[in-house]
Amino acid sequence: MSFLTNKRIVVLKGGPGSEREISHASAAGVVGALKKLGAEVIDLDVTGPGFDLPSKVDFVFNIIHGTFGEDGQVQRELEARGVPYTGEGVQGSELAFDKLKAKARFVERGVPTAKFEIVAAGVMPSLPLPYVIKAPCEGSSVGVFIVKTPEEAAPAVKAAASFAKELLVEQFVEGRELTVGILGDLALPIIEIRPRVGFYDFANKYPFLDPTGQGAADHYCPAALDEAATLLVQQTALAAKRALDLEVYSRVDIILRPNGEAVVIEINTIPGMTEASLLPEAAAAAGIGYPQLCERIAELSLSRTHDLP
Question: Is residue 205 in some structural domain?
Answer without folding.
Answer: yes
